[in-house]
Amino acid sequence: MSETTARTLILSLSLIFALKIVCFVLAYLTIRMGYLLLASGAKGEFKFSGNFGGVTADLASASPGLLFVLLAVLLAAYAIGVSKVATVDERSGPSHVAAPGGPLPPPPATDVSTR
């Protein structure tokens, strides 16, 4: 593995790791806000429903703190379950990193000869 390929792979994995850390921090802050709303006794009337993959969930007339806790748990589950693929294609040279949708097109050819 060349040095450029290793650097590209490390950068890709670092960005994936950063995405997960940001999701966990946001989930923590949202859970904390939900706890503070629950502890202060905030009340609210709302109806929250969702449909994902044939599964329907309804949450109605609960405290806003519970809604924030529920949303934070979903955010944390996304951070754990998201699958990001980082693939490096060494055959096409160090400047071509394969994206999840396929390899990137080669750069246009340039002629640098001087006359």
Largest sheet: 2 strands, antiparallel
Specify the structural class: alpha+beta
Question: Shape from CA axes?
Answer: elongated
Total strand segments? 4
Helix content: 40-55%
Unreliable runs: none
Q: What is the element string, with H for helices and E for strands?
A: HEEHEE
Q: Which strands sit side by side, in order, in the main sheet?
A: 1-2
Separate helix tally? 2
How would you describe this structure to a colleague?
The chain is an alpha+beta fold. It has one domain. The chain has 2 helices and 4 strands, in the order αββαββ. Strands 1-2 form a two-stranded antiparallel ribbon. It has a two-stranded antiparallel sheet with strand order 3-4. β1 (47-52) and β2 form a beta hairpin. α1 runs antiparallel to α2. The protein is elongated, with a radius of gyration of 23 Å. It starts with a helix and ends in a 17-residue tail after the last strand.
How would the blueprint of this fold be written?
Layout: H1 3-40, E1 47-52, E2 55-60, H2 64-81, E3 87-88, E4 97-98
Antiparallel strand pairs: 1-2, 3-4
Task: Provide a concise account of the structure shown.
This protein is α+β, with helices and mostly antiparallel strands and 115 residues long. It contains 2 helices and 4 strands, in the order H-E-E-H-E-E.
Structure characteristics:
4 strands, alpha+beta
